Amino acid sequence: MAKIFYDHLVLREEIEVELEGYNLTPDEREEIVRLADETLHNEVLHTVLTHLPKDKHEQFLSLFHKSPGDNALLEFLKTEIVGIEDEIIKAADKVKAELMSEIVKSRKSS
Amino acid sequence: MKPAAQQYIDADLLRKRLILRNAAAEKKLLDTHKSAKQFFERLQLRPGKIRQHAKNLLTSGALAGTILLSNPLITIPIQPHPLVNSSNPQLPEQLSGEELTQIINSNLRDILPLTGDWKLTDDQEKEAIKRIKGIYGVPITGTVDGNKLLNNYGRMGAEQHLPRYPGDNVYAHERLVDKGITPGLGGWGYWEYDPSKLTKEEVEEEKWYVAVPIIYLPDWHEKVKYYVDWYKYRRVFVVNPANGKAVVADVADAGPSNWTGKHFGGSPEVMEYLGINYGMQNHPVVMFFLDDPNKEIPLGPLEYNWEKNKEETQDKI
Lengths: 110, 317
Hints:
The complex is a heterodimer.
Chain A: H1 7-10, H2 13-19, H3 26-51, H4 57-66, H5 72-80, H6 84-105, E1 107-108
Chain B: E1 8-9, H1 11-32, H2 34-43, H3 50-70, H4 97-107, H5 122-136, E2 140-141, E3 143-144, E4 147-148, E5 153-158, H6 200-207, E6 209-212, H7 224-231, E7 235-239, E8 246-254, E9 264-266, H8 268-274, E10 282-290, E11 300-301, H9 310-316
Parallel strand pairs in B: 5-9, 6-8
Antiparallel strand pairs in B: 2-10, 3-4, 5-10, 6-9, 7-8, 7-10, 8-11
Helix pairs in contact in B: 1-2, 3-4
């Protein structure tokens, strides 16, 4: 799996572990994990850009495009935003809780 | 110990709910952060797909590395076009569409401006020309007779078919009739006044045409006749940086207007081949003049690599 620089903060594997207890086909599981992953990306990026000064957006996005998995991106953000790791974790936890709630709502009796 | 019983879930319902949730997250990101909206539009990438993009970067890097590692002393039988010095002799003879897309992604996109102005700097222009020549083997240039395109990188929008002769109608154009035909004439008027005189080349010129906004050239009003004559059916090379598809086209219309937010127009066939005839039909392309005064390279899609496939391609003309 290709790495994104904030993967270790987002821990999307928790969604995958939760889904293991359900009767999903491999294709269904893959698609649901992919949708969850994309949602997390959108929310994390929104959080980063909300806290990052606007004049740094272009620089960050250019670096992000060139090398999405580079740890230097997080180091860059840490110099610009105090507590950015906590902000990313907070945003990811909120989204994961919402996604878990969607999973529960989609349960059905056997 | 007995394994825990599996719980049942309505996968289709969950999928639909997650699609909606993801769409809401994307909308919030792009509505709130215009820089991100512009950035991802130019990449023709949905922001949530960044992991796929990361995977593509890894694969294209590995592909280039594999080619070099497996054949360090390879002598690729690439015969550069006489007018071209191929700057990338390491590329193999044949590439799949996916491989070409990945190579274009890694070779072209990193020099194109991702936000802000669409204009290329001199260095970006030089590097883009060098890389496109190296990949496609076509003689392209930024300047001919002292003339430059207003933009070499910008948004291309959809144009309609052009009337080739008085009474021409959309059904005579055979394909893509749903795209319509302009009610008025193209920038250079009819190709012929007698339809029986329409040549095969003229049919191709209408099919593979682009519009460029020459009316915004700084000295347009002083040199109208010169520019019309100079740009009339001028050959250009157009690449979609998102997928590597490329066409040889000709300038057959002047436009689009600035207020459209587009920098070029593409005929129905050009838009279709480049894979940009969807959505708002307003997608980034790269365009340079083709330095091919003898018109050796036919109009239409350019299969990678022109020079390597020259004989086969000419057989198809």
